[in-house]
Amino acid sequence: MENLWKLALELFLEKDTKYGAIMDFLEMEWLSWFFQCGALSWREMSPFKSGFIMAPQPSSDSGNTQRDSGYLTCTGLNEQGKAKSCSLKLEGDAALASYQLSHQPCSRKEACEKWAEPLHFSSDLKQCVEITVTPNNMSVNSASMQLSVKVANVPSLSAGVTCVFEELTESPGEVLAKGQILCMSPSLRDVPSVTQSYGDKRVVKLSLKSKETSLKFITTDFIFYNCSILQSCSSCVSSPFPCNWCKYRHICTNNVAECSFQEGRVSSSEGCPQILPSSDILVPAGIIRPITLRARNLPQPQSGQKNYECVFNIQGKIQRIPAVRFNSSCIQCQNTSYWYEGNEMGDLPVDFSIVWDGDFPIDKPPSMRALLYKCEAQRDSCGLCLKADSTFECGWCLAEKKCLLKQHCSAPENNWMHQGRRNIRCSHPRIISIRPLTGPKEGGTRVTIEGENLGLQVREITHVRVAGVRCNPAASEYVSAERIVCDMEESLMSSPPGGPVELCIGDCSAEYRTQSSQTYSFVTPSFSRVRPEKGPVSGGTRLTISGRHLDAGSAVTVFLGQEECLFVRRTVREIVCVTPPSASGSGASSVRLLVDKAEVTGETRFIYTEDPTISNVEPNWSIINGSTTLTVTGTNLLTIQEPKVRAKYGGVETINVCTVVNDSVMTCLAPGIIYTKRQAPESGLHPDEFGFILDHVSALLILNGTPFTYYPNPTFDPLGNAGILEGKNIIPPAPGNARLNYSVIIGETPCLLTVSESQLLCDSPDLTGEQRVTILVGGLEYSPGTLHIYSDSTLTLPAIIGIGAGGGVLLIAIIAVLIAYKRKTRDADRTLKRLQLQMDNLESRVALECKEAFAELQTDIQELTNDMDGVKIPFLEYRTYTMRVMFPGIEEHPVLKELDSPANVEKALRLFSQLLNNKMFLLTFIHTLEAQRSFSMRDRGNVASLLMAALQGRMEYATMVLKQLLADLIEKNLENRNHPKLLLRRTESVAEKMLTNWFTFLLHRFLKPLINLSEAHAPDSDAGTQWLAPSPDITLLARPRRPLLKPTSCQVLQIRPR
Predict the structure, then answer these.
(1) Which of 110, 128, 146 is the last residue of a domain?
(2) Number of neighbours of residue 428 by Cβ within 10 angstroms
(3) By the 8 A CB rule, do 567 and 573 touch?
(4) Contact indicator for 316, 325 with CB cutoff of 8 Å
(5) In terms of residue numbers, what domain contains 148?
(6) What is the mean pLDDT of residues 735-749?
(7) How many domains, the chain?
(8) What is the pLDDT of residues 128-181, one digit of tens each?
(9) Is 856 part of a structural domain of the chain?
(10) CB 3.0-4.6 Å disulfide test: which of 544, 710, 876, 1036 passes with 881?
C-alpha cells in the first residue's frame, strides 16, 4: 500500500516540473492529505521531486533540541537562497512557513519582521499578493499614458511605491484607496528602442517597489507593441493588439487618423485585399497566354497611383507584367510568355506576387504558387510524356516524336496522343537494364526491368519471359512506363540455357514487343568454406561464406542450424552475415543458404563455443583521458573478432580497442571518461559501468567484480630556465606496481627517463641547440616548452686543430697567388717592351723595302715596255672570256651543248625557267640554298654562274635581283655592329659571284679601249710621276695610306735632294 501512495505522489509531482514551487490551493490540500493519512513522510518525499528541498529543521529560540525530521520548501531560489515568489512552506507535520510581503523572502514566522502586523505575513496561498494592470499593453508610438494598477493582499502602502518597467524607466505611483495605484507609462523618448530586434511586440516586467524597503514585492507582464512592423493586411488585422490596416497607404497603424481615405481603413481579415486560394497556377513555358486570378477587396488605384502588376521571380530574374483589374474580385495578368533555362526540371515552382502602386503586394495564401513547366523537359519518351500530370495538357506528338502541347504538334487530330484518349499505348517499348542477371532455376527470383514505354498501367504488361521462363509482374512494384518487377517461375528444364528478357505491351505485335540486349543466366550457387570456423554461443561473429555464384538471385538468407544469420552484404564469391545466438548451446551447426527458392547446403559446419570470460584486468585503473595499456586475462578470447572495452560515466559511454594475444590474454587501451568539473578528486573516480564489448556477449558488458578507478590526468608546469620537468598527478596513488608509461622526446630523439612523484628526470641525448620537448602519456601530448642545450666546450681540440690547419693553408694559398700575380705582371711588361722594339724595327725595314721595291718597279716597267714593243694585245673573244670567268678550268661545259632530253624534261626545264623569272621565288631559292650547311663556296660559285648564264638575256631583271641580294648581304653583315665583315674580299656568297659575272658581261666591250688608253699613256708613265708631287722633295707613288703592317699596300715616299 505504501508503494501505491508513493506512485500516486510521484505522478502528482510530475504535473509541473518547470515551476515545482507553484501549486494551487486544491493541490496543496491534497498533498497535505497524503501526510495526514501517514502515507508518506516529508523525508521520503525528497527523492521524487527536485522542486522540493529537504533540509534539517533549524533549532527554535526556546532552546529545544533540533529534530531529525526534514521539512519541505520551494524552488526558484535567488542568489541568497530565498524564494522569488510567494509559496507555502511546511515544517514538520503541521507548522506553516511564511512569505514576507514587504521584504519578500520565504522564511519561518520567527525570522519575519513585523509578522504580527496585518498582511505582513502570508501563511496561505490565498494571502499571496495579486496584481492587475489596466490597460496591460500600449503602442510604442503612443504618448505616455496613465495605468491603473490594482493590488490585493498587501500591507499598508502609505510609505509609497514606485512603478518599475525593467531597465527602461521608473515612475512614482499614486496610492489610492482599495489597493489602487496610478502609474505613468514610459514616455515616447524612452520607448522607441523597446521593440528593436523583438518583432512586433516585447513583454517587459512591470514591478512595484516599496519605498519603505526598496524591494520589488510584486511583478507582472506589460506589453509594448509596434503595429508598423507588420507588413501585410492579414498579419495586421489578426494582431491581438488594436492595429488597423490602411490599404491606400499600405501601412499598419494603431492610429486610425493616419489613413488618408476613410474607406481605406481595414480592421478585419474579411476586408483585406487578397488573392483567393486556388490550385497551382500552371504556366507552360514559351506560350503567350493570360493568367486570371480570383481575388477579394482589390482597391481601385486612386489618382496618381500606379496600376497592378504581376511580378514573377524566375531563376533569380524578375519579370513584371502589367495586370488588369476587372473588379474588386478579379484580376488578370496580361498576355505574355515565360521561360526558364535548362531542361533538367520538367516543372519549376516560381515565386509570384500581385503588386499595385509600385511595390504594394496583395496578400495571397502562402501555399499558392505558379508552376512553370516544359512538356519536353525530362519527358523524352512517350511513356514519360503520357504519365505526366494531366493538368499540364502535355501529349506525345507522333510526327515529331516529342512531348508537346497540342498547338505545337502538326495535325494534332491524328498525331497527338494524350491521356484523355481511350486505350492509348506507347509503341516501341525498350528495355535498358535488367537485374539481377543470374538466378537459380528453382525460381522465386524477383527481376527488375527498367526501360522506356513499358506501359501506362500494369494490366498492359503481358507475356513477360526471362530466358524463356514465365515471370509474373508484381503490381505493387510497377512504375508506370519505367519499371516492371516480376517474380520468376521455376524452369522445367534440368539445365536451362540463358537468354534475353522479352515482354509485350497489350499485344505482341512488332511495334509493341521488345527484347533486352542483356542476357539472363541460370546458375547453381554453392559454398565450400566459412571463416571464422568458431564463434561464441551468444553470436555476433561476422561470418564470411565463400563459394561460387553467391550473388545470384534477388534475395539470400543464411541459416545456422534453424537460426537466421543477419545478412550484411554479398558478392559473386562470398556472403557476409552476423551469427545469431545459438539455440542449442555450444557445438557444430550446419550452414544452409536459401537463394530465392533454391536451397543450398554443404558439408561445412560452424562451431559455437562457450562465451568468453574475463577473470582479471591489470591494472584496474587508468587516467581520465584513458589510452593506458590494460592486460586482460580470461578464456575463449580467440573467438572474438573485434573486442572492445567500454566505460560509462555521467550517462556518456566511451569505447576503446583491444587486441587478442592468445586464447587467454588480450591487451586493451583503457577508455577515457568525460569529466566536466574543473578538478577531479585525487582519490579517483569510479565509472558507472565498466566492461567489454565482445561480439554479442552481453554478460561482459558490465563487470561488477572489477572496481575500476580513474585518476586525474597528469599536468606539467612550463619548462623553466633550469630545464626540470615538474608537474602534478605524475604517479597516481593506485595500489600495485603498475605505473604510467611516460615518453619524453627532445627534438625527435627519445631520452632515458626516471619518474618521481613530482618530476620527470631525463638524460638528454647528445644534442645541441634549441630543441622542443614533448611528453607523451596515455594518449595525451604535452609540450612544456623548448630546451636550450649547450656543449660543454666551445670548441673541441680536433676542431681547433682543423681550423688552424685550414687557416694556414688559406694563408699559404694567398701568398702563392700574390707571387704568381707579381711574376705575371713583370713578364707582361717585358713582353710589351719587346713588342714595341720589334714594331720600330719592322717600320724601318718596311720603309727600306719600299724604297728598294720602287727602284725595282721603275726598272721592271722600263724592261716590260721594251719587251712589249711590237706585241699584240692579249684579247680573247666574248664566249671564251666569259666561260673562263664563270667556270674556270672547264673547257667544255654542259651549258655550251645542245641538250637532247625527253619531252617531260624539256617541260620541267621550261617551268623551272618561269619560276626563275619570279623574283620572290628566285630570292627565296638563293637564301634557302645558302642556309644549308653543306652548301660549299664552290657550290655558291657554280649556282651564281648558272643563274647569270640563264638570265643573260634579261640583264635588267638580273640587275634588279643582284641589287636585292647585295642589299640583303649588307644588312646581314651589319647585324653585328661591333665586328662588321669586309665585303667583296672573297667570293663567300652567291651575290658576290653574281656581281663578278655581272661585271664580266658588261665590261667586255670596254676592254680594248682601255688597253689602247693604257698604251697611249705609256710614254708619260715611263717619264715618271714627278709632276704629281706637291713638293720637289717628295714624290707620291701610292694610293691613300693603309697600316704599315700590310706591306702589300704600303705608302712609299721618295726623298729627293735639292
Answers:
(1) 128
(2) 15
(3) no
(4) no
(5) 130-225
(6) 86
(7) 9
(8) 778 888 888 888 888 888 888 888 877 777 778 889 888 778 888 888 887 788
(9) no
(10) 876
